[in-house]
Amino acid sequence: MRLRPARLSLAVGLLSGAALAYQILLMRLFSIVQWHHFAYMVISLALLGYGASGALLTLFRRQLLDRFRTAFALFAALFGLLGPACFCLAQRMRLNPLEMIWEPRQLGAIGAVYLLLALPFLCAGTAIGLALARFERSAHRIYRADLVGAALGAMGAIGALYLWPPATGLRMVGAAGGLAAILGWTARDRRRPGAGDEAATGPRAGRATAALASGAVLLAVLWPAGWLEPRMSEYKALSKVLAVPGTEVVAERSSPLGALAVVASPRIPFRMAPGLSLAFSGELPEQRLILRDGEVAAVVDGADPGGAPPGYLRYLPAALPFELFERAGSRSGPGPPLPGPRVAVLGAGSGTGLALALAYGAAEIHAVEVDPRLLELWTGELAAFAARPYDDPRLRRHAIDPRGFLGSTRRSFDLILMPPVGGGTATGTADSMGESYVHTVEALALAIGRSSDHGLVAIEGEITAPPRVSLKLVAAAAAALERWDLDPRRHLAAIRSWSRFVVVIKRSAFDPRDVASLRAFCREREFDLAYYPGMAAAEANRFHLLDEPELFRGIAALLGPSRAEFIRGYKFDIRPTTDDRPYPLHFFRWRTLGELVRLRMTGGAALLDWGYLVVVATLLQAALAGLVLILLPLWWLRRRSPAAGAGRAGLYFLCLGLAFLLLEIAFIQRLTLFLAHPLLAAGVVLAGFLLFAGLGSGASRRLEELWPRAPIPSVAAAIVALALAELGLLGWLFERGSAWPLALKLPAALGAIAPLAFLLGMPFPLGLRRLAASRGDLVPWAWGVNGWASVLAAVLATLLAVHFGFTAVVLSACALYLVAAATPP
Fold first, then answer.
1. Which of 12, 139, 10, 132 lies closest to 79, judged by CA?
2. Where is pLDDT greater, at 512 or 590?
3. With 70 as the cut, is the pLDDT of residue 201 above it?
4. Which residue, among 387, 384, 405, has the nearest Cα to 396 in the 3D structure?
5. Between the CA of residue 445 and those of 3, 342, 480, 493, 808, what are the distances in Å?
6. Cα(797)–Cα(786) distance, rounded to whole angstroms?
7. Strand ranges (DSSP E) for 68-165?
8. CA–CA separation, 316 and 301 (whole Å)
9. 444 neighbors 380 (Cβ within 8 angstroms)
10. Residue 772: pLDDT above 60?
11. CA angle 354, 358, 362 (to 5 degrees)
């Protein structure tokens, strides 16, 4: 049946775009309210709603098709109303994933929020699936409108986040749902002028639906602002800080990279000095904090009236590389001596690294910061308070991500300060599923290559017991040194304070003078030695006493010949972080779960990576919910008539749903390295995949006409070949374009994924048309199976990547496409 009019395609595209924009907004809002790894849950619950819509359409297919325009407009209007409303209700439910470890009822709360936020997607999916069922012979056109609209919605959501806060975006989503309902209600089918008209349902239903659609648009404008504002978890740093009397937010910035807030506390001063030596007896300066999405991102020291740098800086563990350089007495490299080192501060917006470089008289400072809004705060509202550090003539600013800077610069540096592992937040908890491409083997090898002949690369992080963060970092550093044919036992040193550790990598071997300087610094500042070449175990536990020198023993084992055996036998996952598995704070191993659960009430809860467990719980909940959604409609179909062909069709659309999302999630992660932020990568990949897949869907009918006998196997084979080729292409793109501006990176990323995405849009409409020709009553069920499979894939991709890497995710998707090619409906 020919699709008519174009207004219905526009309604489908607008509704699909609103649903995708809502998905991205929820990802941003969950990053603020909870933590960013909830983004995977958002993708999963969105697709669960689409999967549930297939069940609904299967059970009530005839009734809904008889009232097509009313039903379409009703569900589109409900999406517009429920989108903002469900988020408001979800915020009022007591959800604290931190308690999940010792309070199983939190699993129920997560499930309730999960299902609540799936409701808007259920409405959108039902409306779109209804259009596919009504115009099954023109499925490629409806599917094209769906995908292209979703792509535009993804791009629009990212752009809107640069201009307005997420709460404003929720209003726009609600209005878009109402407008889609109005467009759908006013659409008519000339081929069947009576079907689906308001006459089929009566004037009352028509008026009620039109009123509901108009109400969705009106309510989007009238929503109280306070209801839509994100309510941050009480366990986030900003919530705790604002509980201090007299504390206030003095400046704010917002973008897709994060919501920034500058906080001042004039009555009860902040005292932020990570790992400060207990030998320091002075006063800390007045401080302000910069928080990103509720977690500490930077510490800003107030200016000294006399212009002197804060004295406490020399008593931080992070001062170690500067002390080693200063005590060595001269800079390395060709040319005349310089008064201080050449320093690259990666993540300069955090404040401490830049303050150390200025305090130690660096001759040249390259301040690298990816978030321009953070630099705006330093050079704007905070400039006078902090004595304008970015005005120093020795300093050069680089608004680029650290990996991009290291890959593009041809300079060498005496000191390279890497960002702290895990930033300033507690490790091993919320960040366990957080990606970082700055602490991988590849990144550390790149930093070593940018060091001068006697240069130092320094990384700090938080002490954990038993050691986890530090050992995983040392394992990565050892692998990076070996890429340069350097012996890690001679080129690495480490120290610890009561709460922080610092690992230093040296391009040349540590000589006796370096070792003497290291020991003197630790003795004067009362820090503990953790490792240096030739160190004895008796030196490792002198100031901050532990039962056993576990950190020293762990580092010695990692740098020795038994490294692989030690990593395999350790209770936590301390395998080196790589670009293929960029999870520096993931340590969970299933074999230790029983022991940790037994210890949870006696302190063991802190050792559980609850971020990982939330993803696992999401997968289990999605699997159980999806099985119900799949089996119930199938049981219903078998009651009415033999469900011949259902198994083959189910397997085909199951494989497509799994494979498409596995590739999508894998490419989001691969492009995170290129675009330097997960939300930007998600927006670009979602937009690119959907836009070009929509174009591919539109072209599938022409392909079928030209090649009627074997279009599905041929397309599947081409997808597999292109997906494998893309792995190499993205690596080449990052090498060549890491320093490009964002305005050039975005089209380059879209262009790289366009050919593959174009092909990915073909198997679904090709299979749907074949199914419609033989078993049209299975079409809504197939839509639901595809959606449910996408739910599983959204979470499964993350778990596969954590354990096996993103290459394994892509290979799994390729295998699924080959299975689908062998079992067309």
1. 12
2. 512
3. no
4. 405
5. 57, 19, 5, 16, 23
6. 16
7. none
8. 14
9. no
10. yes
11. 105
